[in-house]
């Protein structure tokens, strides 16, 4: 496969609202990101994925855009944005913007026009249908945020389609004018020197509304090839599609370089492994470790040179990994380092979500009033109508609610964790006095420095090419406690062994140690024929 710069890169996702506030309004801003660029440089990352900062009524915290070519005032100005791009690029850090074009805000001028009349020139920028015979919704398609995917518009007596909130009307991608407007907007940003796009729910733009919604609709790949040709394909940039339903075969369609579509996709097979197939995250199921290893390994071996993986545990929609599948109490540091090692020794581009590098945890707010996320609040309301109890929903929110990832970044032990001098838009996790960047930077054994070592290993060590391009082989597939795999090429054979349990275990592993590369404990003399591992102990070896 032709080598690309983003094969060797590590991406850091910033949810700007919660990163760093410099204005005192309680909301993170662009100047706060500029202020922290040297911190990110210290960590060693190469790319920032910046969640949306465009003008928005913030119904979905910026994933509802009312002006794609202007900055939301709470985040700053276009001058701040230009400075951020310049300052990041000056540090060798590329800025990837979030492209949210499956839908706009209902306050976007296109929608304000479209809903004026049925013959408005912008009407077909969106998807409208007459009421059903009984006057109700046109069909039974549902919103991802609960409830119907149709909202009635009194002015014109039709329903409009919204796969997310009713304030996020879906764009009609069949309309060439919509596609042209999007390409033009993308080139506006590319001309500013950004490093690429993360494409929000991009699998949905090929939609077929009446013959039901299908992520990966028939027009999807032609639209992506057209978008590549008309915009980012003319730049050396990273593009990553958010594709909830992708399988390895589908991922190849998006990321095989010969197809001129995207660089890679986010797939969520592992990320939804303990969610009920019908009820999703609101009915958490048990974590199946064997299946988890199988899924992670399948994605390592099935693209075989015809596509590229993204690697992630966290993002702004997912609970924090150290709480979700680790142990965020007495083994928080060990399990955070374990997950970091497991992911960063794999093939693909790793993504670190803000706070993951210091082991930030889920939050446990007692009252629903302390939560902000529209998805959480709408599902709480509707699931109680469906018979869920308050306790069931609170338990699901504590486990899987999106606000777990959105509490403000914990910079130090001062008030509001040094995030703001005002009132934070969402309360800071009460554990900030112990879990914060300042403490992490002062402790050479912190999770931060473990991430820094892993990033350095991937990018600058003698093992780089083995990690980036080497073969992957899962060991002990049926072992209920051990996650072990090999990465190998003609130069090196690396072994990762993780004790994914709270017990001390002993295993016999084939091979002879040449040297220990990295451990999450003080290394001892490891003997592979009788390898003793402490709780969550994870070691990376170079084998002979
Ligand atoms: O997320 C897609 C999405 O559907 C997620 O919200 C996910 O399905 C859900 O949380 C799983 O329960 C993207 C953005 O990442 C998300 O923040 C936006 O809310 C959404 O699209 C709409 O733009």
From TrEMBL:
Keywords: Glycosidase, Hydrolase. The lineage of its organism: Bacteria, Bacillati, Bacillota, Erysipelotrichia, Erysipelotrichales. It comes from Turicibacter bilis. The keyword NAD does not apply. Belongs to the glycosyl hydrolase 13 family. It comes from the Bacteria. PANTHER family: ALPHA-AMYLASE FAMILY MEMBER, NEUTRAL AND BASIC AMINO ACID TRANSPORT PROTEIN RBAT. GO terms for molecular function: alpha-amylase activity. This is Alpha-glucosidase. GO terms for biological process: oligosaccharide catabolic process. Residues 13-406 form the Glycosyl hydrolase family 13 catalytic domain. SUPFAM superfamilies: (Trans)glycosidases, Glycosyl hydrolase domain. The keyword Zinc-finger does not apply.
């Amino acid at each position: 496969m032709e080598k690309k710069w983003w094969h060797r890169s590590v991406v850091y996702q910033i949810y700007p609202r919660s990163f760093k506030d410099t204005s005192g309004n309680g909301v993170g801003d662009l100047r706060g990101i500029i202020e922290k660029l040297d911190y990110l440089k210290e960590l060693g990352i190469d790319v920032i994925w910046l969640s949306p900062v465009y003008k928005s009524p913030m119904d979905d915290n910026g994933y509802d855009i009312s002006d794609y070519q202007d900055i939301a005032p709470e985040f700053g100005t276009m001058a701040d944005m230009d400075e951020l791009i310049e300052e990041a690029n000056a540090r060798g850090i590329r800025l990837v913007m979030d492209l949210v074009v499956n839908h706009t805000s209902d306050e976007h001028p296109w929608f304000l026009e479209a809903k004026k009349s049925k013959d408005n020139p912008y009407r077909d920028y969106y998807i409208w249908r007459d009421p059903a015979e009984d006057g109700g919704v046109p069909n039974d398609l549902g919103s991802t945020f609960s409830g119907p995917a149709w909202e009635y518009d009194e002015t014109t007596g039709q329903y409009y389609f919204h796969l997310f909130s009713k304030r996020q009307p879906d764009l009609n991608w069949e309309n060439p004018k919509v596609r042209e407007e999007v390409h033009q907007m993308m080139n506006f940003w590319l001309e500013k020197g950004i490093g690429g796009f993360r494409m929000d729910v991009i699998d949905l733009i090929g939609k077929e509304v009446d013959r039901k919604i299908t992520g990966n609709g028939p027009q999807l790949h032609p639209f992506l090839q057209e978008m590549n040709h008309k915009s980012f394909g003319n730049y050396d940039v990273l593009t990553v599609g958010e594709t909830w339903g992708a399988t390895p075969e589908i991922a190849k369609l998006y990321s095989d370089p010969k197809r001129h579509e995207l660089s890679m996709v986010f797939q969520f097979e592992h990320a939804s492994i303990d969610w009920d197939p019908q009820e999703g995250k609101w009915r958490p199921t048990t974590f199946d470790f064997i299946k988890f290893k199988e899924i992670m390994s399948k994605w390592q071996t099935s693209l075989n040179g015809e596509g590229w993986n993204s690697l992630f545990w966290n993002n702004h929609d997912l609970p924090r990994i150290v709480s979700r599948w680790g142990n965020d109490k007495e083994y928080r540091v060990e399990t955070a380092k374990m997950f970091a090692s497991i992911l960063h020794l794999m093939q693909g581009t790793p993504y670190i979500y803000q706070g993951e590098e210091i082991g930030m945890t889920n939050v446990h707010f007692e009252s629903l009033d302390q939560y902000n996320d529209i998805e959480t609040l709408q599902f709480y309301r509707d699931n109680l109508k469906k018979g869920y109890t308050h306790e069931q929903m609170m338990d699901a929110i504590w486990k899987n609610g999106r606000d777990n990832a959105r509490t403000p970044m914990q910079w130090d032990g001062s008030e509001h964790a040094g995030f703001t001098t005002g009132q934070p838009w969402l309360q800071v996790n009460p554990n900030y006095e112990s879990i914060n960047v300042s403490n992490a930077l002062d402790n050479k054994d912190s999770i931060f420095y473990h991430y820094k070592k892993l990033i350095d290993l991937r990018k600058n060590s003698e093992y780089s090419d083995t990690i980036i391009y080497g073969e992957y082989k899962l060991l002990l597939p049926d072992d209920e406690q051990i996650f072990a795999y090999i990465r190998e090429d003609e130069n090196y054979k690396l072994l990762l062994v993780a004790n994914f349990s709270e017990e001390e275990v002993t295993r016999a592993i084939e091979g002879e140690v040449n040297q220990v590369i990295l451990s999450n404990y003080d290394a001892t003399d490891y003997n592979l024929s009788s390898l003793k591992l402490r709780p969550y102990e994870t070691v990376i070896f170079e084998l002979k």
